[in-house]
Amino acid sequence: MTSAINLSDLNGSNGFVINGVDADDLSGLSVSSAGDVNSDGIDDIIIGAQWADPNDNYLAGESYVVFGTNDGFNASLELSDLDGSNGFVINGIDSFDLSGHSVSDAGDVNGDGIDDIIIGAQWADLNGNREAGESYVVFGTNDEFDASLDLSTLDGSNGFTINGINADDRSGAAVSSAGDINGDGFDDIIIGVYLADPNGNREAGESYVVFGTNDGFDASLDLSTLDGSNGFVLNGIDIFDYSGFSVSSAGDVNGDGIDDIIIGARFADPNGNSGAGESYVVFGTNDGFDASLDLSTLDGSNGFTINGIDSFDLSGTSVSGAGDVNGDGFDDIIVGARFADPNGNREAGESYVVFGTNDGFDASLDLSTLDGNNGFTINGIDSGDSSGFSVSSAGDVNGDGFDDIIIGAHYASPNGNFTAGESYVVFGFSTDSTIGTSPTIFDDDLSFTAADETIDALTGDDTIRARQGDDDVFGNDGNDRLFGNQGDDTLDGGADDDNLFGGSGNDLLIGGSGNDSLNGGLNNDTLRGNSGDDRLKGQSGNDNLIGGNGRDTLLGGNGDDRLWGEAGSDVLKGNQGNDFLRGWRGNDTLIGGEGQDIFVLESEKNGTDIIEDFIVEDDAIGLREGLTFDDLEVVQSNGNTNINVFNETLNISETFAILEGVTLTLEELTVI
Question: Structural domain tally of the chain?
Answer without folding.
Answer: 2
